Amino acid sequence: MQAWLESIHARARSRLGSGRVASYIPALAEQDPERLGIAVCTNDGTLYAAGDAETPFSIQSIAKVLLLTLALRVHGEALWQRVGLNPSGMSFNSLAQLEAERGKPRNPFINAGAIVVTDRLVSAFATPDKHLQDVARRLAGNARILIDDEVLDSEWQHRSRNAAMAYLMKAFGNLDNDVDEVLRTYFSCCALAMSCTDLAVAMNFLAADGEARAMGERFVSPGLTRRINAIMATCGMYDAAGDFAYRVGLPAKSGVGGGIVAVVPGRMTVCAWSPALDDNGNSVAAQYALELFAEELDPPAHG
Ligand SMILES: NC(=O)CC[C@H](N)C(=O)O
């Protein structure tokens, strides 16, 4: 596994010249596009890593998986009155559909959906961002995981589009709490800095029927795990979810920090990271690394 992961890393480096680092959040524009890391956590807890796998990066939309998981734990199926369950076919920060569909976002993994989910957590917890940070630390078994204040402030300064979505949903009665409080909480969670190994370990519950090994407990039920994986498979890569499903075929979630976490149910989690993104906001080199990973994990008998 170790030698294979290093070979994937070496081959995925060929994609490093393509794509562009996210610049709409200025703090992210400073990332080095040459970085590339990959880490695997198997369900027995063994870790494998290659390249820049220990470097913390901004998890951004990968936080939407943790936000959703916590909201489902608290609110259960009632959450789906606020947010839908289908791919949007639009970019992650599109406003057009939200107006047409009367403030109910298509799914929890586009920005509007994650903002509604965050609103549910603001109703449930006194300090939801600190709670999510604590959960991330315990899931990853790493007490040093921090919220990057520079990224948080940068996103706060440039919040106009996300604020527009939040106000539109508030106008439709789909947001209970103060817009600024919800946005600030959402940005804090997106600004968590974690490495590929942190994320591979933290998300392993999705491969292990909800069992969080680093926490030493069952985090969610097998049924909920299956449902979260289903939403990742259909909506985790925004409007490129179909392409990614065809090429990789694993439930996955990406973020504009350049990270992508993918789940091999029953077996392992894998996280790849490289900051340069394609037009959909998905990391070019990380996608390619995952494509090689999925293709070679169980080599097919026929090409
Ligand atoms: N796709 C992403 O990673 C987007 C998350 C980012 N925090 C935003 O709201 O724009």
From TrEMBL:
It comes from the Bacteria. Keywords: Acetylation, Hydrolase. The keyword Hydrolase applies. It is an enzyme of class 3 (hydrolase). GO terms for molecular function: glutaminase activity. It catalyses: L-glutamine + H2O = L-glutamate + NH4(+). This is Glutaminase. It comes from Billgrantia ethanolica. The lineage of its organism: Bacteria, Pseudomonadati, Pseudomonadota, Gammaproteobacteria, Oceanospirillales.
